[in-house]
Write a structure and sequence with these properties.
CATH superfamily of the largest domain: HAD superfamily/HAD-like
CATH architecture of the largest domain: 3-Layer(aba) Sandwich
Helix content: 40-55%
Strand order of the largest sheet: 5-4-1-6-7-8
Catalytic activity: 2-phosphoglycolate + H2O = glycolate + phosphate
Number of domains: 2
Order of helices and strands: EHHEEHHHHEHEHEHEHEH
Largest sheet: 6 strands, parallel
Protein name: phosphoglycolate phosphatase
CATH topology of the largest domain: Rossmann fold
Pathway: Organic acid metabolism; glycolate biosynthesis; glycolate from 2-phosphoglycolate: step 1/1
CATH class of the largest domain: Alpha Beta
Structural class: alpha/beta
GO molecular function: phosphoglycolate phosphatase activity
Shape: globular
Radius of gyration: 17 Å
Keywords: Hydrolase
Length: 242
């Protein structure tokens, strides 16, 4: 486990999908629809397109650390464009991002009552933000869809100009936005790239959750704590004195 396991955070930066929202239930159907759109009339290509990004249609599960589980639109496009063919790269990026902006907010399945959860963090005077490898507009729309705009002070996507995970840019931008130093924040996520972002940024705490694509063994080497879901986070904060 990483260092800093006993420090209480003044700010918490959350991953979105797999952390606040059940990953498989939310993104499995969206990825199938995205592959069908990218394949156009060649539906026979869809199984290969899903396999190459780490999605198994038979189980509707996404592999830990895969393009589907940890990547961004750039990764999807680079994996699919040579299979599907007939696309300009920029056009496929735009088409996929448009699909995600439309579908993700309305189909996201929260892992707990998010307004109650974030209200509890605000009552503790903890500043909160979201960092996702999804498109930024999708993240903003999801925040509004679930009535979280009162609580979440920062959100960033892969296209926000801070770089993509596992780079530290989004975590450092969160710190700048809320006026905290990296050693005063925690990062919570379901994938190694979330925790790597936190470690590279110098976050005090990196907390893994099991509501996404990764198992405990995947997360433990990078995490100070691994919990079942964010619903267990208040109890952990109590243990840390937060």
């Amino acid at each position: 486990m990483a260092g800093g396991a006993g420090r209480k955070p003044r700010g918490i930066l959350f991953d979105k999908d797999g952390t606040l929202f059940d990953y498989h239930g939310t993104w499995g159907p969206i990825l199938v629809e995205a592959a069908e759109m990218a394949a156009r009339e060649r539906r026979d290509l869809v199984p290969e397109m899903l396999s190459v990004i780490g999605f198994d249609p038979a189980t509707a599960r996404v592999a830990a650390g895969s393009i589907a589980g940890a990547g961004d639109t750039f990764g999807l496009v680079d994996a699919w464009i040579t299979i599907a063919g007939g696309w300009e790269r920029a056009a496929l990026i735009a088409a996929l991002d448009g699909l995600f902006i439309r579908l993700a907010p309305e189909r996201s399945l929260p892992v707990t009552d998010l307004p109650v959860f974030f209200r509890g963090l605000k009552d503790r005077e903890i500043r909160t933000g979201i960092a996702t490898n999804d498109v930024a507009e999708s993240a903003r729309a999801t925040i509004l869809r679930f009535g979280l705009e009162t609580y979440i002070e920062f959100s960033a996507g892969y296209d926000s100009g801070h770089g993509q995970k596992p780079g530290p840019g989004m975590a450092l931008a969160f710190c700048a936005a809320v006026g905290l130093a990296p050693h005063e924040i925690a990062v919570v996520g379901d994938n190694s790239h979330d925790l790597e972002m936190g470690r590279r940024a110098g976050a005090a705490l990196n907390i893994g959750v099991l509501t996404g694509t990764s198992g405990r063994d995947d997360l433990a080497p990078l995490a100070d704590h691994v919990i079942g879901s964010i619903a267990e986070l208040p109890a952990l904060l109590d243990e840390l004195g937060g």
